[in-house]
Structures are given as structure tokens and as C-alpha cells.
Design goal:
Beta-Lactamase; 597 residues; five-stranded antiparallel beta sheet; alpha+beta; 49% helix
Length: 597
Amino acid sequence: QGPSRFLFRGRLLRAAQRLSPWTMFGLPARNIATIVALGGLSLVVVIWLLCSAARSSLCSNVVNALARIAHAVRSWKRAPADEVAVEAQKRDRKQKVLHMQRICKVMALLSLPINLAKVFQCVRMDARPDTIAHDAVVFVLHSTLTVTLVLPRAVSWRTIDVVYCTLVSCAALFVAPPPISDAHDDNLISHLIGMNMIVAALAVARRDVYVVLPMNALFTLASGTSMWVHEGPYLTAPAFVFFIQCCTMLMVTGGACILDSTWRALIYEGLAVTAARQLLSAATGLLRSCCDTVVEVDSEGVITVPAHDLGSFLLRGPGYNLHGYRLADLMVDAEDRDVFQDRLLSKKEVCMDMAESIHVRMRDGNNVVLRLQLLFLRFTHIDDSTRYMVGIRGNFPGLGEHGGQDGLRPLAPGSDGEEPTPRPSSSGLSVVTPAAADAMSAASDLLPVLVVDCTAPGFPVVECSVGFRARIGRVPPSGMLLDAVKHGTLFVQWLQHALHSMVYGAPPPDDCEVTLRVPRSGVVVAAACRVLRVGSAYDAARAPDGQGPDGEHGAEGPDIEDGAEGAAPLGPDALRRVELVFLNIRLRRAGPSHQSW
């Protein structure tokens, strides 16, 4: 062990003798420690890069990135594929113009002290080392910034490239070597730092690679040439400074391209989400126009929205929340529940271009079984989960809809199959024939129409249209209209006046402003009520054998004159179906004092 210990000590002494010349030539121990630390860290980074390249094909990824950049440069003029991409491109251009205007405004304001300093220097007659070419470059630079500050509209999508190229070219000429720029060695670094900040800000504002890349290359070439020319005591290592300059411009160019693609993707996704939301809202509104209520369920049939409309439709009370309930649990029959679940779980991979329909039965809050039709269409939610938009439409024979061919009545004998047309009276009203009445009923199915029986106390509701159920609410069985109308006495007087005017040809009264409460929904409806039609007005004036009052066959109804003494009033059968339409509907939350069905 003795000889080996002396051998190790000798090796340490020889190593110290080898390091001693470094300290003699200006490398103290602190510099040696720095070299060892930074060199070790750099070595670790290089080893990690090599291992990553061998493990994850880093070189191929770099090549793919360069290929994508080249593809972007080649296809920057290619037209977008869809409408959302076109709108995203328009908004991206507007944002680039806006950012360029703001950058130019900020630079114009920051250049104000510099301009004042130069003016003060000229007033004092100080010696100025700048050449005439340098003064011309500075004048063009500040003139461009001033124009963009005073006239922001001068920067548009047509002129944005001209403004950008002018400013970057002036920055490149500002740091260019003589004879264009005769800057001293002591202020070259400050000029380089200032111009690099300006070029970087302009690149971030412009962002398109086909413009930013060549202009940054031009500025890098001009600054590198100036560095080699001004090599001296103030710039001892121009190659190292030029390397830093190149790295800086590469980072600025890459950052601008990444920012451009990210910004464009964000605009596209935002527009796509907005378009999808508007499309979903339009689809929901379209479903509401033909359905009583619309809910949203997931692939398991669980309701994902509060579904207050469905709770009101089922007469469960005001503000009834069905969020988290299974829609199948509201169905009466187990067979309907199985069919509904099978439809939700089958063929998820097939795109649905039409809504599917099934018929089920549900029970409302009055323990009445409702025969309903379910229309559902599958879509993908924002979290990539499968959702279904379900429209629920009721078919109530007792509180019915106008049912297409069900309400048609045969024409009178001798009409030769031609449909009679309504004949106007002197009061401006028209007597509606049966066929025209059925057509009117079919056309007004989407209007909020309520059919009441005016012969019974309280005006019981006979029918309600789909539009009434969609916009106002469903009427419970045996519901009384006067139980929900505020100021019922005034409403009865107005209705009697309106019916009297229709019978005797007097001018009809104005629309009645009524306030009623939607059944068990906690919503008050304010609307203008108007008598649309009396269902049996034409039949009451006809003879039982299908002939008119003069004994001749005819399809035209009686001509009711103003104040005609022989005009027979409407009988009880005619007043059993009085159609009321509600216009200018306004909804608001109900207070505890409002009455309801």
C-alpha cells in the first residue's frame, strides 16, 4: 500500500502542474469551476438529445416539422375547405391588422422622446456622426410610424405587408454597415438590441411565415455584416454575437409561426363551437315548433338538463327539476322502456341523418296516462360523449289537435266537388265554409290557439293546438279558462261583445289583453286574445237538407248584413267550439297572488 499511496500523490501533483499555466494566463479557479459546471450540464443535454433522437425518432420529427412549414409556405393562398374556415380566415386577418395597428401606435409613441432628443441636438449645433443615408432611413421609419398613428385605417389587409416590409427594411438599414450606417462601435450594441425588439414585435403582429421568414433573414444578414465590420474593443467576438443573433431570429420566426397556427386554431374552434351552439339552438327551436317539449339525454337515457318544460308538461308543479332522472322511468309500460333503451344503445357508429320515432305512454301529475310520440336524434357533445336530443309530442283525443283529415266534412249536394270560397260581408268579416274552416284549422295548428266551450260556466277547454302547448303550456283535463284568467269578468264581457259582433256583422272589438298562468309551471303569460273562429257558425245557418235559406242548393254561406233583423243568433251547438288565438305573448315569473289552473 505504501508505494501505491506515493504514486497517487504524484499523479495529483502532476495534474496541478498542468493546470497551473491556465491560472497564469487569466483563468482563475472560479472560471474553471464555471467551465466544469456549464460544460457538464451541456454534456448532459447533448446526451439526452442523442438518446431521445435514438428512442423517439427526433430527426424524423424535425424533418416532418420542416415539411409542414414548407407546405404552409406553398399553400398559404389555398382556399379554405368549409364556411367555418373561411370565417376564421377573415377574423384572423382582422386580428393581424388590429395587432399591427397597435404595435405601430406603441412604437410611434415610444419614438417621440428620441425625435425630440435629435431635434434638441440639432438646435444646439452639436456634432452629428450620422450620414445623410442614415438620416433618410430614420426619416422613413418615423414617417411610417406617424402615418399609422394618425391614420390607423392606412393599415389594412391590402397594405399590411407594405407597412411591415417598410419597417423591417428600415430596421435592417439602420444597423447596416457603412456607408449606409456610420454608427460608432460604442453604440452598435444598443442599436442592435433596439432594432431586434422592433423586428420581434412586428413579426409577432404579422405572424405569417411567408412574410416573416424572408424579412427576418434580411435583418439577420444586415446585422451580421455590421458585426463583422465593427469588430474591435467593443465587439471582440462577432461570431458569437452573430450566432446569438441567428438563434434569436430563429426563435422569433418559430414563435410567430406557432402563435399564428395557435391563434387560427383557437378562432376556428371558437367559431365551430358557436356555429354548433347556434345550430343546436335552431334545431331545438324547430323541434319546439312541432313538439310539446324538448330534452337532452345521454347514451344511458339520463336527462342532462333541468327540463323544467317537461316537468310543466307532465303537470309536476312549478320549477320541477328532472335533471339526473332516467327518461325511461317516466314511462308506464316496461315494453316502452325496453324499446327506448334498445334504440339508444344500438348503432352508435352509424350516423343518423333522420330522427327516429317511437310511441310511448307516460303518466302526468294528475295520474292521467298520456300517449306520446318521441323523436330523438343523436349528436356528439363537446366532451366527445354521445347525446340525444329528444322531442316529445302529445296526441290527446280529449284535448286534441286539429287532425288533418279527421275534421273534414262532406260538401253540400250540388257543389260539383268544388270547394266554396268565403264570401265577405259588409262589415269586413267573412263567413267561413266547412272546407275553408278545416284548412284554417290545419294552418293555425302552429299558432297558440285554444278552443273553449262558451256554453258551460267557466269556459272549459275543449282543445289546444300544438303551438299553444309549445309556447304557453299544456292544459290539464277539464281545465277552466276563467280559473286562470285575471279579471275574468272583463274577459267574459269582451268575449260576449266579440261573439255578438261576429253574429250581427258589427265591427269587431279590439284584442283583449289577458293575463293567465301556465298550469303548474310558475310562469305568468301576458298576451292579446282574439276570437279566431266560431266552429259551427256556417252549419247553424244552413238548412238540415244541405240547402240554403232560399231552398236552392248552394255551397256559399249566408250573407250576413250589418244590423240584419233576420240574422239568427248562434245556437248553443255553435258556441261549443270557439277558437281563441293568443298574440304578442310575454312570459314572466308568477307571484304567490296569481291564480292558476
